[in-house]
Amino acid sequence: MGVAVLAGGVAAGAGPARARGIAIVARARPGAPAPAAQVAHAAAGAVTARGDRAVKDAQITSRAQVAAGAVPAARLAPFGRARALARDGWRDYLAVDFAHAKSLLEDAATAALAVVPLAGGRALLADIILRQGAVALAMGDGPRARADFSFARILDPEREVTIARFSPDVVKSYAELLAPVGPMAWTVQTDPPGAQLKVDSGEPRPAPLTVQVARGRHLVVARAPGRLPAAAMATVTAPLVTRVGLAPDPAAAVTAPLALGTTMAEALPALAAVTRFSGASAVVVVVAAWHGGRPAALAQACTIARAPLACGRVIEVTVGDRGSFPMGDRGSFPAAAGGDRGSFSAAAGGDRGSFSAAVAAAVGGALDALDALEGVGAKGHGPTLLNDPRAYPGEAAPAPRPPPLPTEGRGSVWKNPLLWIGVGTVTALAAGTTLYLVTRDHETAPVIGVDVCDTFIHCP
Questions:
Q1: Helix axes 121-138, 73-94, angle to 10 degrees
Q2: How far apart are CA 447 and CA 195, in angstroms?
Q3: Which of 68, 264, 345, 398 is the most exposed place for a label (fewest CB within 10 A)?
């Protein structure tokens, strides 16, 4: 299986004509002015507009690369060094400069040991060890030559040694290898404990491990979750204990959630890993928040050019008073705060007062701040935005403004003839009752007639 190579920050320095990759990490709390996916989309547009290459789904991309076995270019560098040293050492061997050839091949074996856990590393080391045996044989050191040949066969048992590449005496000595002498007890321990160990071509077994091996040189490869694999060689001529240390694997940090509230110490390795394994050279963190009751876009840009990560200052861009966006408008920020994914799209239609423009301005300002930082060679800041008080815990979404009373048809109820007919009828009855009570003891009973249409309104 091949190894995918990620150049990381190296690609950005390849030349001014090559667009740098900018990873985007967007976050938004529930009730924020816009959902994180839409913030990422707006940020990607701003990066592309600057002539850079946006990696919108940086976390997803980086995790997929790690799962596929991708490694940074820096981890593959020993391949080139080992091959170059082996080539020069073999050239000196052919020139009968055996002492110098021996020294170069020893350095080549040391370089190759670092990449043994990677695809092709074991075969490379086996080839170098075989060449060491050829040099030892030429120098008259038969025992060392046989030990090297035996170790080379352990590393690559399918390797054929023929006169097409080696001298007849090397081919003969390799073919006449004696049966292994042993066994010898070899104990391997790991730090941290419990790593899986593979001794020579055996099956993986957990550490600590004691195995019986033949006298001579042997190889162990240790692997553990969250750690870089490590390899060690040992010459076992008596019972031996070897300890193998496994360093933390930066790639494991791509699984960190990078949630709002993540501290700078936690965010630093995670952002560096996301940037490197997404094939970018810089990362922009963008947060949608409320500030002073207004929608605000916060952004901070960081680069992996200076390990492990160097960041510019946090840039904030706020949008105008939210009062200009009444509740119920599909393009309003209060509607977006309610969780409607379509509302942000309507608001981000290109209006300079929209949240899309605010995100673009914040991202542009953050990248400008990073460029200025790199231009003067300043140390920079840590990745502080995810734990910035404006982003987390941040302000709660402001209460939506109630909708205004409807204006269409206002006052038309007072023009309804039926209303006034009812009012006139009630008034006439009340007046008649009052007069009756006042005059009931008199002989004359007045009659009051009220025409509602003539008195109150004009009836059709």
A1: 20
A2: 113
A3: 68
As a whole number of angstroms, the distance between CA 107 and CA 93 comes to 15
What contacts 126, CB < 8 A, 6 or more positions away? Answer: 152, 155, 156, 159
User: What is the structure's pLDDT at 432?
Assistant: 60
The answer to whether 281 and 8 are in contact (CB under 8 A) is yes
What is the Cα–Cα distance from 175 to 230, expressed in whole angstroms?
31
The pLDDT, as a whole number, for residue 446 is 42
As given in the structure block, the two tokens for residue 77 are 């560098």
CA distance 251 to 4: 14
Element (H, E) at 291: strand 282-291
**pLDDT-derived band of residue 399, with 50, 70 and 90 as boundaries?**
confident
What is the C-alpha separation between 384 and 436, in angstroms, rounded?
Answer: 87
Least confident residue range of 69-78, 89-98, 125-134, 384-393: 69-78
Amino acid making up residue 449: G
- For 256-293, the pLDDT digits (tens) are 999 999 999 999 999 999 999 999 999 999 999 999 88
Pick the closest to residue 272 from 314, 303, 226 (CA basis).
303
Across 9-18, 129-138, 155-164, 230-239, least confident range: 9-18
Instruction: Report the helix count and the strand count for the chain, using DSSP H and E.
Output: 13, 15
pLDDT reported for residue 373:
85
For residue 303, what is the enclosing H or E element? Answer: strand 294-303
DSSP 179: P
- Beta-carbon contacts of 381 under 8 Å, excluding residues fewer than 6 positions away, are 300, 310, 311, 312, 313
- Tell me which residue of 153, 23, 128 sits closest to 78, measured CA to CA: 128
pLDDT in tens, 411-426: 555 556 665 566 566 6
The whole-angstrom separation of Cα 201 and Cα 157 is 9
